[in-house]
Amino acid sequence: MGVVNDARAADRAPKQDRSRATRQRLLEAAVACLAERGWTGSTVSVVAERAGVSRGAAQHHFPTREDLFTAAVEYVAEQRSHALRALFPQGAADRAELVAAVVDLYTGPLFRAALHLWVAASHEEQLGPRVTELEARVGRETHRLTVELLGADETRPGVRETVQGFLDMARGLGLANLLTDDRARRERVVAQWTRVLDRELR
Amino acid sequence: MGVVNDARAADRAPKQDRSRATRQRLLEAAVACLAERGWTGSTVSVVAERAGVSRGAAQHHFPTREDLFTAAVEYVAEQRSHALRALFPQGAADRAELVAAVVDLYTGPLFRAALHLWVAASHEEQLGPRVTELEARVGRETHRLTVELLGADETRPGVRETVQGFLDMARGLGLANLLTDDRARRERVVAQWTRVLDRELR
Questions:
Q1: Do B172 and A176 touch (CB under 8 A)?
Q2: CATH number reported for the structural domain that contains residue B55 in this entry
Q3: In terms of CA atoms, which chain A residue is nearest residue B169?
Q4: Within its chain, how far is the Cα of A65 from the centroid?
Q5: Which residues from A are below 8 Å from B123, CB to CB?
Q6: CB within 8 Å of A58: residues ≥ 6 apart
């Protein structure tokens, strides 16, 4: 009996790994697809093909289009948070580097994908409540992480709002980068606001 | 002859007024439609019906869908600039009031409409270059007006980037208001950043 169970467990493990890998491929393909084609161009079929997965397998993992794309944005947001934390394992030694890394969260394909999802959610009923909830969750996590990495003391009056305003600015910089390569201007703005943040958080 | 010409001129004037009024109704309906339904839901027919204008008359004013919606966003942006300037005819006496008024530019239907247009332009070929150009023009004008109303001295190092960062923050606050009523949080952030701007621009 024990031998049979062990063999079954061994058989199950790689199956779970394969399933997890498939899921991950679908999530990454979904974010890339959203970023490039927007919500109207992003369907489960298009993502399945891009991920090299059958449509049936895709629907096994994500029964609806809304499931797939909200899960995708959440997954990639978590990956980005982990990556940001990994960049600064002891907190941020250099505040300018950290500020630049946080702003970078808002200028890549993840932000672009999230933006398409938000905008679609503002007039698509099935998407609205789910994306609102997702945005709140990801927003809280980004705020928490930024406060921690900046070493900001939120018990001091104004510090919480200073960090929030900085994250709003990062989001606005992401939007300004949507249609044009805004890097040169952005670097000057970020350099100046790093000085401002330094003074405010001291 | 003089009498006939005068009569024709008198006849032309109300015609031009009517034409201008029709154009204006179309532009306002187009922005409202974009804000509510997004780019996919916004067609010339839908706007014409909303404005109470025939489809033919709408196409006489705006031969293509792109013409109509880019003109609409530009028109409403200009209206908003005029309104902002009219609010502060002698420049801004109270900086907090001005900061709040500038942030308001980014939380109403115009910003929502512009956002839909930008996002659509990021993956619609016919729209891309036109919206990029429009965004640059409106952005420059808003920057110029904000500098003027804030009485900011851009010859001082960092001042230009401070104002730019503030406008990026306003844009980010607009985005945060897309799916939820973010007013309470926004007011706290704006109050804090008014203090920061005061210190930086002094």
A1: no
A2: 1.10.357.10
A3: A169
A4: 18
A5: 36-38, 41
A6: A26, A44, A45, A47, A48, A51, A68
Which of A77, A193, A55, A186 has its CA nearest to residue A134? A77
The answer to whether residue B114 neighbours chain A at the CB level (below 8 Å) is no
Query: Is B202 near chain A, with CB under 8 Å?
Result: no
Which range of residues forms the domain containing residue B184? 2-201
Q: How many domains does chain B have?
A: 1
B172–A175 CB contact, under 8 Å: yes
Interface test with B, best of A36, A40, A164, A190 (most B CBs within 10 A): A164
Instruction: Give the span between the Cα atoms of A195 and A11, in whole angstroms.
Output: 57
Task: Please spell the DSSP secondary structure of B98-159, one letter per residue.
Answer: HHHHHHHTTTSHHHHHHHHHHHHHTT-TTTHHHHHHHHHHHHHHHHHHHHHHHT--TTSTTH
Tokens representing A197 are: 């943040």
By Cβ distance, the residue of A122, A173, A191 closest to B179 is A122
State CA A98 to chain mean position distance.
Answer: 17
Q: What is the pLDDT along chain B (202 residues), one digit of tens a residue?
A: 445 556 566 566 788 888 999 999 999 999 999 999 999 999 999 999 999 999 999 999 999 999 999 999 999 899 989 988 988 888 767 889 999 999 999 998 999 999 999 999 998 889 999 999 999 999 999 999 999 999 999 999 999 999 999 999 999 999 999 999 999 999 999 999 999 999 998 8
- DSSP character at residue B178: S
Annotate A133-148 with three-state secondary structure. HHHHHHHHHHHHHHHH
Q: What is the ipTM of this complex?
A: 0.89
Please tell me which of the candidates B116, B118, B165 has its beta carbon nearest to residue A189.
B165
